[in-house]
Amino acid sequence: MLKKSRSLKAAFIGAVSALALSASVANAEMLELEKEELKFGFIKLTDMAPLAVAYEKGFFEDEGLFVTVEPQANWKVLLDRVIDGELDGAHMLAGQPLGATIGFGTQSHIITAFSMDLNGNAITVSNDIWDKMKPHIPKQADGKPVHPIKADALKPVIEEFKDEGKPFNMGMVFPVSTHNYELRYWLAAGGIHPGFYSETDISGQIQADALLSVTPPPQMPATMEAGTIYGYCVGEPWNQQAVFKGIGVPVVTDYEIWKDNPEKVFGVSNKWAEENPNTHLAVVKAMIRAAMWLDENNNANRKEAVEILSRSEYVGADAEVIANSMTGTFEYEKGDKRDVPDFNVFFRYNATYPYYSDATWYLTQMRRWGQITEAKPDSWYHDIAKKVYRPDIYLKAAKMLVDEGKAKAKDFPFDNDGFREPQTHFIDNIVYNGRTPNAYLEKFSIGLKGKQQVKGTEVADAK
């Protein structure tokens, strides 16, 4: 179903045009747009919220943009439609522009100048698996599990499956998804091998203790309920949906795996960006304003955001389910609702800034699991990050908003060089420094490093 702009271009004729544009030009001249009518794609997840809000609150229209937003069947269809020009841009997985640009899967130069959110995912297991895990999880004084729950508690369950000759199947949403890398990171931190990719085997299941495969987000709960998978990593509302349906238990959030990790980005083809530079700036301006609205006044607007997202043309899940995570709480086991104020972050902590170090982290995980098959120097990681992530465009849009009086300069990292300081908040306490990706890879006991390559089913040093 399409969601069309409330005002069509034809309505902006004569006096109507003057009235509609007057508010926009009060503080600044409108950008000279190369293209005004745009179509954007998204997947039905709560972190598409900046797109929905930019549309519903009129931020796109303030920039002279006439936007249609359209849900897509899956991440591959969404990417393909951006590449072939059917979509002008889309809500994308943070790793998607990187994967496309380096040629893992579909080859195409995709860029992002806007990070859509931080956090927002979780790992859920079925009730049966949860019952098997519980004896291995420390308890609080009130009997509730101590969080974060580590994959150490899942390891004996997987070993039991192995002893019985049964595969342990888990779902994630796409091979270059944040969910794939977060699930792999959590499993490996608990001594569970999530499997390698190779040039000839892109299943990602070489040497795997847990077999990870792709399942579209909205289908996760039903697939687990059917017994096809025993757990999954997905964004909201599909973890909370498992709780509401009584079929599973979210055991850990990505906030607990990597605190304030980047989750989705807004992606466009590099060709489109070069042909439509002013239009691109206008889009980024509108989405920055949407992100600000989502987080302002201590998340005061989240209830309205929940109502918007619950509509069928957006996420289409019950408002109560969406609110469980969007309003600062998260429910793990039924009745175990805890305060997680930063489960969804859209603007604070420079959430919208596309950091080179974030891009580099995803590239390290692609290398760690064999999607990048050969050793690369640190300079290669940084060159790809700078080719795909575009803070220069972001900061230009941010400065325009500051000059227009619609944003404050202190809220943007104008003096940043694109790299975060070394990050310490990982579930395994390993420090990540985006400036030294190869040294980072050396720290892991499970995963490729140095000159290692996967040949057949074995790992060997390249000669």
From TrEMBL:
Keyword annotations of the record? Cell inner membrane, Cell membrane, Membrane, Signal, Transport
Taxonomy of the source species: Bacteria, Pseudomonadati, Pseudomonadota, Alphaproteobacteria, Rhodospirillales
Which SUPFAM superfamilies does the annotation name?
Answer: Periplasmic binding protein-like II
Main location per the UniProt record: membrane
Q: Which InterPro entries match?
A: NrtA/CpmA_ABC-bd_dom
Q: Which CDD domains match?
A: PBP2_NrtA_CpmA_like
Q: Where is it located?
A: Endomembrane system
- This chain belongs to the protein called Periplasmic binding protein-like II
Source species, domain of life: Bacteria
- Could you name the Gene Ontology cellular component terms for this entry? endomembrane system
- Signal sequence segment: 1-28
